[in-house]
Design a protein that fits this description.
The chain is mainly alpha-helical. The protein is rod-shaped. It is built from five helices and no strands. Helix 1 runs antiparallel to helix 5 and helix 4 packs antiparallel against helix 5.
């Protein structure tokens, strides 16, 4: 009986070792393949993120002079009681707000955020937060404008100018964050 158990044990070990080794090799290959696919996915996502952020940075750079021209027009016509805010805005060819693109970041942040380095997550989260702040400030600006389009008084014009300056400050901060992210990506 002992001999039979010993024979079955040896036979079991001889059969199980190749199975275990095969399973381990299959797991290793699957893990390696999964990591390779994740890296390719993240690389592609970061190409898109970099492209979106570059477009956003360029949009900010393009719009800032137009916003500064509107501020100059507001300063020029602050004391003019004949000129409405609407006329000043129309004379400056409208109000411009940059489009901040973070679609790729939003997509990856909800699915595979664990594959991204903490520093990049922090930087991109800050950019997303600043985008939301800019959106809220822009909405406030437009609400203020709509309710005061026919105003000609100095205080309303100065308030409008201050709101616009606050938006410009947020855009400058956003631009700096994007540039910092781009510099960090070049280093790695």
């Amino acid at each position: 009986m002992k001999q039979k158990i010993k024979t079955y044990s040896i036979q079991f070990i001889k059969e199980i070792i190749p199975v275990v080794v095969g399973i381990l090799i299959a797991l290793f290959i699957d893990n390696w393949n999964s990591q390779r696919k994740d890296k390719a996915y993240i690389d592609q996502v970061f190409l898109t993120i970099n492209s979106e952020l570059e477009d956003s940075r360029e949009d900010i750079k393009f719009i800032l002079p137009k916003q500064k021209a509107l501020i100059e027009a507001l300063e020029l016509h602050t004391d003019n009681k004949e000129m409405t805010i609407l006329e000043i805005v129309m004379g400056s060819k409208g109000i411009y707000i940059p489009q901040i693109k973070i679609n790729a970041w939003r997509a990856v942040s909800t699915t595979k955020i664990d594959l991204i380095a903490y520093e990049k997550v922090t930087s991109l989260s800050n950019i997303a937060e600043l985008k939301e702040i800019l959106s809220n400030k822009s909405e406030f600006l437009m609400n203020f404008l709509y309710s005061n389009v026919n105003q000609t008084d100095k205080n309303t014009k100065q308030t409008f100018k201050l709101i616009l300056l606050d938006i410009i400050q947020t855009e400058n901060t956003l631009q700096q964050c994007i540039e910092l992210f781009e510099k960090e990506n070049v280093k790695r």
